[in-house]
Amino acid sequence: MAAAVRPGGRIYPSADPQYLPGLADVTISSAIGRGVGGPVLLDNDANLAVLAERWQGVAQDVDNVVLVLAGERLGAGIVMDGRLVRGAGGAAGELALLEIVEGVGDTHGIGAVARMSGQNAVRRQRSARSRAGRSALYDLAAGDPGNVTGEIVAAAARQGDPAALDILRAVAARTARMVGVLSGLLDPELVVIGGGVSDVMDLIHDHVVQELPRWLKRPPRVEASRLGDAGVVTGAVRRALDQAHQEIRATLG
User: Fold this and answer.
1) By the 8 A CB rule, do 190 and 64 touch?
2) How many Cβ atoms from other residues are within 10 Å of residue 200's Cβ?
3) Are 120 and 61 in a shared domain?
4) How far is CA 151 from CA 48, 54, 111, 154, 182, in A?
5) Among candidates 139, 114, 117, 115, which has minimal Cα distance to 126?
6) Predicted pLDDT of residue 90
7) 224-249 b/e with 16+ CB inside 10 Å = b?
């Protein structure tokens, strides 16, 4: 994640100028509201995803949960004692602090790290003078690093490809450190990993769980989201229903 939503519907300026270009510090809710006949709510995608998990996902009946969207960028939605945590400026869950954590070092998500590591592996194999050492990962990418995706890395790992398996072991170790940092700070009962990682999570989940005791005396439960691409949209529906309920109660007194 690279942007937070401030109270009032304004996007917090991003540290990455290429993220949401032209929208930094724009009051989106007001801009959209001019074209619709009702109130407009704006929220962070990770916040919406954690609301969805508590409503329809693996975090039902869990009052202390952190959901990490981990596809391209890492960002967290946090619920403590049953309440969504936003922070003073709406930036709770922004994970720039991971840039100073040894073994993590940035906010690239699981899918992004798997893709970039896979691209580097294919480049190394392509530069070899012979086909010796080339692998299923190389073949699935047709020898082109630009073709590598997280899904291709996962597919190669399922075929037993050594390079892909090494990549996913490294991804699992990095993910465990990330979960360890969040758990050490927030002490959640459950950490949910969501976003575009469904092709990878079943391959790294057990490795992540096995690594956690290295960093925590009492590790949280770790689950992959089952909502897939519908997580953020489902959370938006939940957010709208909650807002409508509040307004109806206020009207009825």
Assistant:
1) yes
2) 27
3) yes
4) 25, 27, 8, 5, 26
5) 139
6) 85
7) bbebeeebbebbbebbeeeeeeeeee
Least Cα distance to 5 among 39, 41, 33 occurs for: 41
Give the range of the structural domain holding residue 137, as residue numbers without chain letter. 45-253
C-alpha 123/C-alpha 42 separation (Å) is 42
96-132 confidence digits (pLDDT tens): 999 999 999 999 999 999 999 999 999 999 887 666 6
3-state SS class at 46: helix
CB 137 within 8 A of CB 164: yes
Q: Report the candidate in 175, 248, 188 with the shortest Cα–Cα distance to residue 221.
A: 188
Can you give the CATH number for the domain in which 240 is found? Answer: 3.30.420.40
The Cα–Cα gap between 64 and 53 comes to: 12
pTM here? Answer: 0.85
* Amino acid at the residue 193: I
Q: Tokens 């925590």 sit at which residue?
A: 216
Domains held by the chain: number: 2
Q: What are 196-240's pLDDT values in tens digits?
A: 888 899 999 999 999 999 999 999 999 999 998 899 999 999 999
